[in-house]
Design a protein that fits this description.
Number of strands: 0
Number of helices: 11
Structural class: mainly alpha
Distance between the termini: 60 Å
Order of helices and strands: HHHHHHHHHHH
Radius of gyration: 27 Å
Strand content: under 5%
Largest sheet: none
Amino acid sequence: MSTLAWVSACLSIAIGTWFGQRLFYRASLRYREHMTAQARSELSDLFVFIDLTHFWPALVWLAMGIMLLVWLGTESVLSCVCIGGVIFVMPRIILTRAVSRRQRRFDLQLPDFILSLSGALRAGAGLSVALKHIVQEASPPLSQEFGLVLREQRMGVGFSQALASLYKRMPSESVELVTTILTVGTRSGASFADLLERLCVNIRARQHLQQKIEVITTQGKMQAWIMGALPVVLLLVLSQIDPVSVHLLQSTPVGQMVLVTICVLECLGVYVLRRILAIDV
């Protein structure tokens, strides 16, 4: 009877391991496809066109190498798993922040662009000619985005549709206002230089208000960084002062549960602070 129970337990473990391996493989495959597609989309938004065929294998080997180094230094499975998870998430975070910074630079360039366009229209230039000359003198990302609008227009795409595509690539209130005024102006056929100047004033006022808000919330962001880094710094200090206790945290089940709880609370704190401040901390 004991032999039958032992065989049944072995079969149950084998079947559970097989199902777990299949689920892990399918989940990793879906994550790979989603991550590669997102990276390709965000890189194209940054006007960076590279082959991502070897992106996932390189990321896997990098994660395995760093996890091995962490294992050799700490001998903690939990630390290896946490570091590996961070490595797999970091490319998405870096690309998202890069796209956000590019969006911000584009918004900051809009007032000067609108003012130049208004001046060119007052001088008697057509909208397409004015856009072409302004794009040639502008710097990225504005020159890239409006250059793409002009190229799409030359390929037969309607100007309104090209502006709609611009708004999809750069979804912000300032871009929505600019594209709406340009679309209405081209359809009405009237001179809208005055509207552009008023829009420039409004956008500058909004950006000035946003900068004031960022200055006011700078202290909150710094406090968030300090409070978030404090547990990690204390852990490093304790590893030098009392390495035996820190080793127990990494090697015992209770200590590992404490570390997992700390990581969960850290992530929850970052999420709450981002919701409160409505910015990236």
